[in-house]
Amino acid sequence: MAIVRSTPSGWLQETGGVTRATPFGWVQEEAAGGSAPSTTTRYNSFVELMADGTIDMDNDTFKVCLVTSSYTPLLTHSQLSDVSANRVSGTTDVALTGVTWAQTSGTAKFDAADTDSVFASTGTPKYAVIYSDTSTNDNLVGYVTLPDSTTITGGDTLRLVWDSAGIFTLA
Question: What are the residue ranges in the chain where pLDDT is below 70?
């Protein structure tokens, strides 16, 4: 997964702490010394909730919630209420679009179109938490750790560019 950012004054690229204007549309923000993380960590309850039909990978609406570094990820968290006190101020959870859940040779892949979140105020998201907005308790699926340098000001758009191999796979 990569992080892409636009600002009201134009596009910026941040790589290794260096910021520069770019003449092209989308740019990528990378963590110092390497690329942005691409691993989605799944919460413990996810597989069970998927297996018993509580989370329906084909039909549920999935959303992304941006939370701050005040959140301590615990794999035992299972509901959005476990993370919601740490939401980044001024953000609205964004529905994933173009969601696919497909199996090839015994490996299932969960994927979606890249996701934009517009900030109403300044914030520093540390995690992007994916959850099922359809399940009764807004059950958690997984989270991605964002680069430490991800700081957004009012009016910025944060784009989560999901890994080309999918948000996650199950084999």
Answer: 1-38, 118-120, 149
